[in-house]
Design brief:
A: five-stranded antiparallel beta sheet; 11 strands; B: four-stranded antiparallel beta sheet; globular
């Protein structure tokens, strides 16, 4: 049972444009959501997170939006840069613990 | 400040064998979690260790076991290897209570079971 889903395995975006990565979840207990970025041969690195009490969190070029009623979150990257090319994982947890449930990832390719 | 280091980076085993993977935590972290990432999948939580004891376990059989040492480093042991155990094994360290956003991952150990 996939509790966190990323339905787009890949996405290509022109440099300078907006990249939008989507994530859906099914477990209503989740109260904290994170995005990780992974380059080849490296471990996932934390990018941005959002608590369920918020609907938006922004950090520089990265913004995460949470729609609890739809159980959907999205990551916006604007403007997209070549260094943003990586695999992006959506993850969720609850109760403040560090046991994360990950989605299957979306490979983002930024076209120069 | 050193990050999370894992060894070995790659290894090949045959079905039925046993394997031990090692992880050194980031300085200042006291909790270690292990994740399995199969090809084309996201990382799946195996278990977490805190104060040298297992502190939560995912949906993995008992042949997956672990240890945490007083210096907070950790080992993941897998007995009776199966073909489906082929995956990237990720170790992540954190500071208990500091929140999931400080979870720091290593680059992983890629296990191939033939």
């Amino acid at each position: 049972d996939q509790q966190v889903k990323q339905n787009s395995p890949s996405l290509s975006v022109q440099e300078g444009r907006i990249s939008i990565l989507n994530c859906d979840y099914t477990n209503s207990m989740f109260d904290y959501f994170l995005w990780y970025k992974k380059y080849p041969a490296e471990g996932p690195t934390f990018l941005i997170s959002i608590s369920s009490i918020k609907d938006k969190n922004e950090d520089g070029r990265f913004t995460v939006f949470l729609n609890k009623s739809a159980k959907h979150l999205s990551l916006h990257i604007v403007p997209s840069q070549p260094g943003d090319s990586a695999v992006y994982f959506c993850a969720a947890n609850w109760g403040g613990n560090e046991k994360l449930t990950f989605g299957t990832g979306t490979r983002l390719t930024i076209i120069p | 400040e050193t990050g999370v280091t894992q060894s070995p980076t790659h290894l090949i085993k045959t079905r039925g064998q046993q394997v031990t993977l090692r992880c050194s935590s980031q300085s200042g972290h006291n909790t270690v979690s292990w994740y399995q990432q199969a090809l084309g999948q996201g990382p799946q939580f195996i278990f977490q260790y805190y104060r040298e004891e297992e502190n939560g376990r995912g949906n993995f059989p008992p042949r997956f076991s672990g240890l945490q040492f007083p210096n907070y480093s950790s080992e993941l042991n897998v007995n009776a290897l199966e073909l489906d155990d082929s995956a990237l094994y990720l170790c992540a360290s954190s500071l208990s209570g500091a929140g999931a956003n400080v979870l720091t991952f290593g680059a992983g150990s890629r296990l191939t079971v033939l």
